[in-house]
Design the sequence.
């Protein structure tokens, strides 16, 4: 099944709602970075939320999420855009903790709770819009809820879940964001709060194979949701050999000449997708000619 996000309105147009299936997308990140389970869940939850936030944007707009909670996982970095493309990585992908009594993954311990979650939005202006909040729980979902409430002044509920197989591959991933629009009445607010307390956990819904549409029906009630749009989601990196070559050219003649004389080659690896690029002496000499 292809990953996708749905955009919807609900409860007499008082609520804006999004839900996503991100299993293949998170699975591709796990495959590329070889993350252990706790890191997979932390990165997967972040990418899932990031993909939804990207789906809220338009045209060529894009965003970058940085989560740095001071924990052993280091920094989580996620890029997403309005086209359904998302990529991400963690500083230390081999970080892994389980809670002994329950066997649950201790994501909060890995992420840490003494740092910040920041979102930088590029909407085509001279400077990006940056919002930042302290990390409250390190569980990711609650921290994105805090970000949307405090930085965007929109009361929201964020649920994200990732389940990992015994062989460390991704079993299922998905989530939702529910947002109250201005003027939402008290009855609707109380109804949503009640539903959120009663519904299965997001991990249970993901494990149960709920589609994004079914997640929203579970959260907001049948007959209350109108789906407006569906958009495919995928892991997509922006790196390429051409971009790396342009970056080498931008270093200038002296720097490229030093590479040729000292190393006889140049190597580069993309943090986001782990693709490896090798430029031989002959390739570097060709690039050197382009600077002359």
Sequence:
């Amino acid at each position: 099944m292809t990953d996708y996000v749905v955009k919807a309105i609900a409860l007499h147009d008082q609520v804006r709602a999004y839900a996503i299936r991100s299993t293949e997308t998170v699975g591709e990140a796990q495959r590329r970075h070889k993350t252990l389970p706790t890191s997979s869940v932390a990165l997967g939850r972040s990418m899932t939320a990031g993909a939804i936030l990207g789906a809220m944007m338009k045209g060529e707009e894009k965003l970058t999420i940085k989560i740095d909670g001071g924990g052993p996982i280091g920094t989580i970095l996620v890029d997403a855009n309005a086209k359904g493309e998302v990529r991400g990585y963690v500083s230390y992908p081999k970080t892994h903790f389980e809670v002994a009594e329950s066997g649950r993954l201790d994501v909060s311990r890995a992420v840490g709770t003494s740092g910040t979650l920041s979102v930088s939005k590029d909407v085509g202006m001279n400077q990006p819009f940056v919002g930042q909040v302290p990390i409250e729980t390190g569980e990711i979902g609650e921290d994105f809820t805090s970000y949307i409430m405090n930085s965007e002044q929109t009361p929201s509920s964020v649920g994200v879940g990732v389940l990992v197989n015994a062989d460390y591959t991704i079993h299922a991933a998905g989530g939702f964001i529910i947002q109250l629009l201005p003027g939402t009445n008290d009855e609707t607010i109380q109804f949503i709060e009640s539903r959120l307390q009663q519904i299965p956990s997001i991990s249970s819904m993901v494990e149960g194979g709920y589609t994004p549409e079914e997640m929203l029906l579970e959260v907001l009630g049948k007959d209350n949701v109108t789906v407006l749009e569906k958009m495919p989601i995928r892991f997509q990196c922006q790196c390429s050999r051409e971009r790396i070559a342009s970056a080498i050219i931008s270093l200038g003649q002296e720097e490229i000449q030093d590479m040729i004389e000292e190393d006889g080659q140049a190597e580069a690896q993309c943090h986001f997708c782990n693709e490896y690029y090798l430029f031989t002496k002959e390739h570097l000499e060709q690039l050197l000619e382009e600077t002359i």
Q: What stands out?
A: The chain has a mean pLDDT of 93.
